[in-house]
Model the fold of this input.
Amino acid sequence: MSERIAVLLGAGASRDAMLPLTEEFARRILESFDADLLAAVPHVRKRQQPIVDALHVVYGAMVAHATEQGKSALTAVNVERLVSAIRLLRDRRTHEAAPFVSSWRPSIESVDAHPLPFRDDDLREHFSLDSSFNFRLQGLADRIAAIAKATFEAGDGSTFRALEDQLLRKICSLLSHPADLTYLDPLIDLATQQPGGLDITTLNYDLTIETAAANRGVPVDTGLDRWQPGLPLRFEPIDGRVNLIKPHGSIDWERVSSSQRNRIEGFPLVRHCYRTSADPEAQPTWGTSSSPLIVIGDREKLETDGPTLALLHAFEESLHRASHLLIVGYSFGDEHVNTIVRNWMNADPRRTIAIVDPGWVTERMIIGPDTDPSFKEALMYTAGLPLKEVPGRIVVIRKGAREGLPEAITTRPLSRLENLIDIEVLPAPIAAVRITNPGYTLTRITARAWPEWKSNPLTPTAALWDHEGDQWVETLELADLARGETHEIRFDVHGDRPLVSIEINASSWAYTVREKITLDIPA
Done:
């Protein structure tokens, strides 16, 4: 099977473009709404004030809830949960939880609209001079009671509906200005070098890949201009092209409500049309029927009205063309995406994954019949399996995209590894050993030595030679060792004991190394 690489990008892949991540994104949105309100002319400020107040109420409640549980206020709100909360409040009258909520926070109701059941003209007729006094009073009490009742019911959600629309547009605006994108050049190079081009699936809405490819003159196909409801969306592998699959939408895509003039071939069952917008930063226009086509929120990722499902199927097809998947900056938080990757891995034991993640932490796990690990936990377990027993299928580069992409494109999991570290005794008369790393890059390497009769390695009576410090030390710290690199360690034993033990401790992203060797030192 000839190798073919596919790519999956998460939010961390855009971090080096200086675009905000989830928690930072929410704070940036709040600051931007406040700045816009302050700069608005009076009549716009009056109209906008309830919308900004609603954002403050939601954001503040989420922070308060997190801090009450002992969590940090700085990470209490991310943009996905913020959008989901606003949508819940928008639909709180009809939400499935509504029967179990006796009343919402007063602050929520204070910012929302509460349409009254009667207009001024409806009440004015009761006090018409053309009517008798008794007639004027008929039904007045009932109408006043209905008005009072309306003020205590849940609002109609219109304020939160307007906030949601503006929030989506603000997200598009804040993602419209990426910084230097040359760090993505390794992916663009791969698209020009790999037969059939490169399939990239991104869960981000930004235009980093499109811009990076345009800067290099490489064509990009996003498929939106070809998609029609009810038909599959195919991405053909073509030399020198990037097939860019964006199942969560894009800041330059927009959803337009169907009308007589923009229906697809006049078909009346089409609810919306989808097209590329010339201005992803467009501010809301009152009365417009368009909205940004970005699928965002904790519960809304499987959007059914639009190209999302077709694009997810295209992602699945792109994986089945690949033997190796490069995952950059993805936290494995979307279960529908995880399921596709998991099924792809399970279908063929030769398929492998490289993960670029500077925060990857290896957690030793024991998986039994009752264990139900998350997908990331399952990957951690698979990554930590002894390479003496099974070939590796996962490799992790603990770096950001800018530093890690070149390495990740060429690095593959090790198939077999007999030893985690090789220790060779150098021939006499040199009192030294040579350590060689046959596997993944080792970090935090330390060495200790002690006479065999002294069983506690924490109190050695032997010494190791520190080349940099030019001195004998009890514990020697070594530089990182990449695969195939070696390091020599000289040692000295105080006294006439012929046996000395040397212990090497190190760690990689996948496992911890602890090797001990006992040497018989010639007199």
